[in-house]
């Protein structure tokens, strides 16, 4: 507030109104921050609750099945997909394997496309 009041371009005739506006905005920012933190904590609490719905169980089962299908991919495609599943970025994967980021991204794209085709074929088999 003191810094705002000491501003060189401040109109001294409007100092009271200016400081009132500054105080109100600081209060608004303070309560917005509290609200934002509260929402983040609620999201974190929801994220920590274990999924027990039927959909969650199916998602986990599908994830295990899909991870098994990764074993059928070719060398670099398999490596980059497994690295991404572990949370390693394609750029980090490229650095670790001394290849270009473009090559790592291409291998990831090819591997993902092959897995998509495997999923499509499996769904076709289920529909019959």
UniProtKB/TrEMBL annotation:
InterPro entries per the UniProt record, alphabetical: RNA_pol_sigma70_r4_t2, RNA_pol_sigma_r3/r4-like, WH-like_DNA-bd_sf
Keywords assigned by UniProt, alphabetized: Sigma factor, Transcription, Transcription regulation
Regions annotated as coiled coil: none
Metal-binding keyword on record: no
Boundaries of every RNA polymerase sigma factor 70 region 4 type domain copy: 65-115
Protein origin, superkingdom: Bacteria
Pfam families assigned: Sigma70_r4_2
Family according to the record: Belongs to the sigma-70 factor family. ECF subfamily.
Protein name: RNA polymerase sigma factor 70 region 4 type 2 domain-containing protein
